């Protein structure tokens, strides 16, 4: 150290003096590291001046002895094509003593741990998802977003973070900034031909602008595609937020117009979704509503129910702003499927706002957004108070019953009783059959017995009568479970297997998912757990493929049952279930306020044959009922 200090006092800053200084620094480090491990850490090398870069290069080339580790870090995102650190990195890569370690961005789990460390508390999973998506796993962005959301309860960018993200964009040439603004509104990746059509620049000018944006590490070529994307989604968000309102809608309108004129500009599987997004952000309601509805149908076909719900909510938002002539041309048969046509011609009947609410309620339930689905059903039932539409009201009460049970806010019977009362005395229909099927499914779980059995038989009969195949399969599944519970084990299991095979083959995915819950549960109930294991494995794959997260949870519940061999290994055979000796199960409505001591319960009354309709099939063999205490059921 003394020698180095003396040298610095006696020599100037000329080239020879700098070389001598580097040599003495290397000798000093070797001497210190002769009998101990020494780590020299250099942070943020992308900000280093020329002298520091030259010293680092000299050290890596000349250090040969001692237990010395030189650790230098830099942010790759800040190293643009003309950055002065690039030549040094290329030189160091050729040295055998140098090892470059690429640190990948955080995954979702690591982002969650970082947020928990910042807040000293477990974060909300939904907020972790949002921050992970917006930050792209960049630790700095994660911290900024987490602190902003915690302090100000904001989902938007803070002013300081926005300024930091935009500073490099604003240093680009004006043409490159314009291209960056266009790419920000085009989606996660914008194809070159689409970008050229929207930008309307000469090809050489467009290439030059793109080269400047890519060279500054703002944009990057999309891997495997002939297109461009932002290096960070948060930079894209900042650029988009910086657009003027009229500027944003104009860019999106231009995207929509060129895509309608030439659909080949984007991949076929993205066209519908992209067009819906462009027209929606162009604020053209007349064009946006049909496009958004088309996209919701495409999302439903991919079982992307979360995306479907978001699109349906956009459609409901647009509904009142769309001209009457546009709404009059929309048909339920083109956009909806969950609410059955009841007494109307779907080819000529206009689409209704309630049709969208029905689709959104089911999409919310299937995607796990049950709270949003509950709000939709509540609003729909409020709107139906002023209409004479008992079938539609009954349908929404059924959906509300399912949602209330899934949210553990009740057993769902009051809602089913309301639906039952609305369809009483009406001729068979799909809604009528669905009410019966849900009553039977509820009874199977809560009060299995003769009443539930008869309700399931009547549901199968009504569904078959009106050609409601999905409801018929659902009711048959319930009936099969009741057969097993009544002691008719082999016939019931055979029926469960048949329903499973038919629904999988016919693409009735909702009922098929339920069958993957109830079939293994029935096998477990009668002590045949080993047969259930491969069915559970198949069911898990099926539930994941079709986005049935609720069914996946039920299947995991069965597979993790303490008595299951998949969880606890082999076990001795269990004795058959002890019968409870029920002669007739009490009506599920007997304890509800709607019942009175002098009147039959709504369920029993409902199960009586209606005039001019055949009575339900009766069971000839005596039935002894038991209920499982170890296996979950999906009713």
What does this protein look like?
The structure is a single chain. This protein has 635 residues and is an all-alpha fold. 61% of the residues lie in helices and 3% in strands. It has helices at 2-10, 15-32, 50-62, 85-93, 108-119, 125-135, 139-152, 159-166, 174-186, 192-199, 203-215, 233-241, 245-261, 271-281, 285-301, 305-318, 324-328, 332-335, 353-367, 370-384, 390-406, 413-423, 430-446, 450-466, 469-486, 489-506, 509-525, 529-545, 549-559, 565-568, 602-607, and strands at residues 38-42, 68-72, 190-191, 219-221, 227-230. The strands form two sheets. It has a three-stranded antiparallel beta sheet. A two-stranded parallel sheet has the order 1-2. A hairpin with a 5-residue loop joins strand 4 (219-221) and strand 5 (227-230). The protein is globular.
Task: Produce a short descriptive summary.
The chain is mainly α and 635 residues long. Helix content is 61%, strand content 3%. The longest helix is centred in the N-terminal third of the chain and has 18 residues, at 15-32.
Describe the strand arrangement of the main beta sheet, using strand numbers.
3-5-4
Strand percentage lies at under 5%
Number of strands: 5
What is the structural class? mainly alpha
The rough form would be described as globular
Name the helicity range: 55-70%
Flag low-confidence runs.
562-631
Q: Could you describe the largest sheet, including whether it forms a barrel?
A: 3 strands, antiparallel
Number of helices: 31
**Mean pLDDT, as a whole number?**
82
Radius of gyration: 33 Å
N-to-C span: 81 Å
């Amino acid at each position: 150290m003394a020698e180095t200090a003396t040298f610095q006092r006696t020599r100037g800053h000329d080239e020879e003096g700098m070389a001598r200084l580097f040599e003495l620094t290397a000798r000093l480090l070797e001497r210190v590291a002769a009998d101990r491990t020494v780590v020299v850490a250099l942070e943020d090398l992308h900000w280093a001046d020329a002298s520091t870069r030259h010293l680092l290069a000299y050290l890596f080339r000349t250090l040969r002895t001692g237990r010395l580790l030189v650790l230098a870090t830099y942010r790759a995102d800040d190293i643009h094509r003309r950055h002065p650190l690039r030549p040094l990195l290329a030189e160091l890569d050729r040295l055998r003593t140098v090892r470059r370690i690429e640190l990948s961005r955080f995954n979702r789990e690591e982002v969650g741990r970082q947020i928990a460390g910042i807040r000293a508390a477990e974060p909300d999973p939904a907020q972790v998802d949002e921050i992970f998506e917006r930050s792209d796993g960049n630790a700095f962005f994660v911290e900024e977003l987490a602190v902003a959301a915690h302090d100000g309860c904001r989902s938007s960018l803070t002013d300081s973070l926005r300024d930091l993200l935009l500073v490099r964009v604003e240093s680009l040439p004006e043409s490159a900034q314009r291209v960056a603004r266009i790419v920000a509104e085009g989606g996660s990746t914008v194809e070159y031909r689409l970008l050229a059509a929207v930008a309307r620049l000469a090809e050489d000018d467009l290439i030059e602008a793109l080269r400047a944006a890519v060279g500054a590490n703002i944009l990057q070529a999309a891997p495997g595609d002939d297109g461009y994307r932002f290096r960070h989604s948060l930079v894209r968000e900042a650029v988009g937020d910086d657009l003027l309102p009229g500027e944003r809608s104009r860019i999106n309108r231009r995207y929509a117009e060129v895509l309608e004129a030439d659909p080949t500009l984007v991949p076929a599987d993205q066209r519908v979704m992209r067009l819906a997004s462009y027209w929606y952000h162009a604020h053209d309601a007349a064009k946006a509503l049909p496009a958004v509805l088309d996209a919701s149908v495409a999302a439903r076909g991919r079982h992307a129910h979360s995306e479907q719900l978001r699109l349906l909510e956009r459609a409901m938002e647009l509904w009142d702003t769309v001209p009457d002539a546009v709404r009059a041309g929309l048909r339920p048969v083109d956009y909806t499927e969950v609410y059955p046509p009841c007494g109307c011609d779907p080819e000529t009947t206009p689409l209704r706002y309630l049709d969208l609410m029905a689709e959104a309620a089911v999409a919310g339930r299937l995607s796990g957004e049950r709270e949003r689905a509950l709000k939709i059903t509540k609003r729909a039932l409020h709107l139906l108070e002023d209409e004479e539409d008992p079938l539609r009201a009954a349908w929404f009460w059924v959906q509300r019953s399912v949602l209330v049970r899934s949210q553990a806010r009740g057993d769902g019977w009051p809602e089913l009783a309301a639906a039952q009362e609305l369809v009483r005395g009406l001729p068979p229909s799909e809604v009528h059959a669905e009410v019966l099927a849900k009553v039977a499914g509820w009874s199977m779980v809560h009060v299995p017995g003769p009443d539930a059995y008869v309700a399931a038989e009547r549901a199968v009969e009504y569904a078959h009568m009106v050609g409601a195949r999905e409801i018929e399969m659902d009711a048959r599944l319930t009936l099969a479970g009741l057969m097993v519970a009544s002691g008719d084990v082999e016939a019931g299991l055979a029926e469960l297997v048949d329903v499973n095979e038919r629904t999988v083959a016919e693409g009735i995915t909702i009922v098929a998912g339920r069958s993957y819950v109830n079939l293994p549960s029935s096998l477990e109930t009668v002590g045949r757990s080993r047969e259930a294991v491969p069915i559970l494995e198949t069911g898990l794959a099926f539930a994941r493929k079709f986005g049935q997260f609720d069914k996946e949870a039920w299947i995991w519940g069965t597979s993790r049952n303490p008595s299951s061999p998949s969880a606890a290994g082999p076990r001795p055979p269990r004795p058959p279930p002890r019968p409870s000796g029920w002669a007739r199960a009490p009506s599920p409505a007997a304890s509800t306020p709607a019942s009175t001591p002098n009147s039959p319960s709504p369920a029993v009354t409902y199960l009586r044959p209606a005039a001019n309709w055949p009575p339900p099939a009766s069971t000839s063999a005596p039935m002894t009922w038991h209920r499982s205490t170890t296996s979950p059921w999906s009713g």
